[in-house]
Amino acid sequence: MGERVVLTRILRVLASCDPERRILSAHWDSDLLIVQSGAFRTLIVSKERVAEAIGSAAKGTLPASAWKFELDLSGAFLYWKRFDSHMGWEQLEQAVNPAKRLRAQQTSRSFNLQYGRAICGIRKERGVHQNQIPGLTERQV
After folding, report:
1. 139 belongs to a structural domain
2. pLDDT over 70 (residue 69)
3. What are the phi and psi torsion angles at 73 (to 5°)?
């Protein structure tokens, strides 16, 4: 990695509105992913936890090359090309902290329920039944 890329990342991370949630550096140390934020906090994430967060594509025995990642120039995320998976600081924190993971799941669930109710309200207001929306199944609406 060139010096210019490293310096650009450092400047972008430190100048961001929230350097606490930006990734300044990341590397593998054996089976541990060592990640440092722009606020100089360090996260240590096991390969097993990263695989769980990525999903089924990362299960099983994989060659070392599969675990190569790119660090976004602005420090927003790590990208695993093999899995087409992006993970930012918050996702990495959730991988190691069950309380943060649960909170994120609850927030997502709450949003989905509110969004679903809003869509249902609009459909009822306009007199549109679920099966009248082309290209979507009743389950999707």
Report:
1. no
2. yes
3. -60, -30
Residue positions counted in the chain: 141
Work out how many domains the chain is built from and give that number. 2
- Can you tell me the distance from the alpha carbon of 47 to that of 26, in angstroms, rounded to the nearest whole number? 13
Nearest to 95 by CA among 55, 37, 41, 40: 55
Cα–Cα distance, 140 to 14 (Å, whole number)? 42
Residue 140 has pLDDT above 70, yes or no: no
Quickly state the pLDDT bin for 24 (edges 50, 70, 90): very high
Count Cα atoms within 13 angstroms, Cβ side, for 104.
13
Q: Quick one: pLDDT at residue 68? A: 94
* CA neighbor of 58 nearest in space, from 82, 91, 93: 82
The conformation of residue 17, written as its DSSP 8-state character, comes to S
Structural tokens at position 45: 């994430």
Contact call for residues 88 and 23 (beta carbons, < 8 A): yes
- Residue 89 shares a structural domain with residue 108: no
DSSP 139: T
CA atoms of 93 and 33, how far apart (whole Å): 12
- The conformational region for residue 6 under phi > 0 = left, psi -120 to 50 = alpha, else beta, is alpha
